Amino acid sequence: MNSMSRFFEMGGYAAFVWPAYAITFAAIVLNILWARRSLARSREEARRRLAARGEGA
Amino acid sequence: MTWTWFHRLASPPYIYTLAARLTPWFAWPAGLLIVAGLWGGLVLAPPDYQQGDGFRIIYVHAPSAWMSLMVYTTMAIAAAVGLIWRIKVAHAVAASCAPIGASFTFAALVTGALWGQPMWGTYWEWDPRLTSELILLFLYLGYMGLRAAMEDTQRADRASGVLAVVGVVNVPIIHYSVTWWNSLHQAPTVMRLAKPEIAASMLVPLLMMLLGFTLFFAAILLVRLRGEVLSRERSASWIREVVSA
Amino acid sequence: MNRVVTPIAGSLVQTDTAPSTQTPAWPDTAQASVLEAARLALARDLRLAFRKRDQLVQPLAFYAMVTMLFPLSISPELSRLREVAPGVLWAGALLASLLALEFLFRDDAYDGTLEQYALSGQSLTWLMFAKTAAHWLLTGLPLALMAPLAGLSLGVPAAALPGIVVSVAVGSIALSLIGSIGAALTLGVKRSSALLALLTLPLSLPVLIFGARATQLAISGGPLLAPLELLAALAVLGVTLAPLAAAAAVRISLE
Fold it and tell me: Which chain B positions have a beta carbon within 8 Å of A35's beta carbon?
């Protein structure tokens, strides 16, 4: 437990280290979500376009 | 013979299916490398004798900064290819890069500020590297703003392509700014041609993070690329099979 | 009906405002006529600008207003104003130059002249250079000549004024060139002022930095050759690259 609390305190720099990691983690997660949503939207749009033309050329 | 694969890459249906197939091959290694790098950097690496545990911000700051530059360069090269050879897929690559690069540039600036305050006494300073990194963020935003302002995708592709190529001059400025000018930001310890001056136990997790982030970029790029390629194909028949699947 | 000289295919074609009714003669030697075409484009822009003299004054008036904001909002003390003078003079010049950029291509895009330039067979790059040169002569140079007045109002010593004129004159060359790229890119975009600023300002920042440094040295009496040389280098870099990029951007916008 002692090493656990030492880990979280980061030698006194916790107030800087953990927000930095948090924001980078947020950037990673946001990129994943954003990319997937963008792809889903493009697929939906393509589907709608095809439907509007009645699945034909 | 070698040009046939290049021409295949320019074909939207081929790229679409290839991107879908390749994504896990980048995503999983990226995840593993990042987790391993985090473990190595946060737990295994010893504290720095000067900065203590605070130096561990490097494991998120340096990869973010690397991403901001590498993604822009990729975007500029893709834009140039798209402009010169008029390849739609290249423009789709460039468009996919921008949001990724912008978000990591922002992360680099924020993590840098969080590192700067305890170590060098200030969240921000208008020195060449920080200022030019901020300019990079504005270049990304300008690129995305220009795209958004134009309704015609082809014109948006080409106009923003010109912007991306013109702005690439900022990338070497950012990288070399710490050697050209006296700067608050420290001189490069890893990304230089001489041997890096950093202990192995600290270096290895850093390299893993850098590689992991790069593979992550590739994975996200491939996901976005599929959507961008789709939106540029108005009436192609291959879309039918793809979207009804 | 305004008679306007337009460089179509390098020949001096007098047209009314519908140049497409003319059938220009294509020259055999393209080399000599490129400079001639550029010279004609420059002369045309200058002549047209002088017909709307009040539009010429606008950037200058804007510059004066911006300069006035700082004594009123920061402090009327000349000693404090002198400290911020380099930044104020340059930020104001940059913003005034930005304001004038919107007019660089707008009228020509509307009446089809820009299209004629692109179709003329003449080097669009040279024509862009000519237009940008006209922009500098009509905006940058007057701003440089006005900067001493703005400087005096901010408490700048008289000895610094020649240095300020030179640095703003040289720096505004680079600003006009960099701005022409953004103006060309945002040609088709409605309400593009904010976007134009977003595109132009990041690339103009080195000019701002070196220009303010030169002004700072001029005020303190130090040697300003180094930043002036850097400004000149930026201008030269701009001259070689910017018209090319602007021409590419114009072609994209005209499609």
Answer: 100, 220, 223-224, 227
- Cβ–Cβ contact B148 with A under 8 A: no
Entry pTM: 0.81
Write out pLDDT tens, residues B186-214: 655 555 544 556 778 888 999 999 999 99
Residues B232 and B91: their CA atoms lie apart, in Å, by: 10
- Does C touch B (3+ CB pairs < 8 Å)? yes
Partners of C255 on chain B (C-beta within 8 Å) are 154-155, 158
Q: Is B43 on the interface with A (CB under 8 A)?
A: yes
Chain B positions in Cβ-Cβ contact with residue A16 (cut-off 8 Å) = 54, 57, 114-115, 117-118
Chain B residues within an 8 Å CB radius of C181: 162-163, 166
Confidence of residue C16 (pLDDT cuts 50, 70, 90): very low
pLDDT tens, residue by residue, C167-208: 999 999 999 999 999 999 998 788 888 889 888 888 888 888
> Is there contact between C and A if contact means ≥3 C-beta pairs under 8 Å?
no
To the nearest whole Å, the CA of B207 is away from the closest chain C CA by 31
In which band, very low, low, confident or very high, does the pLDDT at C28 lie, cut at 50, 70 and 90? very low
Mutation target among C125, C178, C185, C200 for the B interface, most CBs of B within 10 A = C185
C247 → chain B, closest CA residue: B162
CA–CA distance, B184 with B150 (Å, rounded to integer): 39
- pLDDT value for B195: 52
Query: In B, which residues are within 8 Å of A52 by CB distance?
Result: none
**C95-128 residue pLDDT tens:** 999 888 888 888 888 888 888 888 888 889 999 9
Res. B78: pLDDT tops 90:
yes
ipTM rounded to 2 decimals? 0.87
- Which H, E and C letters describe chain B, residue by residue? CCHHHHHHHCCHHHHHHHHHHHHHHHHHHHHHHHHHHHHHHHHHCCCECCCEHHHHHHHHHHHHHHHHHHHHHHHHHHHHHHHHHCCHHHHHHHHHHHHHHHHHHHHHHHHHHHHHHHHHCCCCCCCHHHHHHHHHHHHHHHHHHHHHHCCCHHHHHHHHHHHHHHHCCHHHHHHHHHHHCCCCCCCCCCCCCCCCCCCHHHHHHHHHHHHHHHHHHHHHHHHHHHHHHHHHCCCCCHHHHHHHC
- d(CA C124, CA C117) in angstroms, rounded, equals 7
Residue B17 tokens, joined: 């299916």
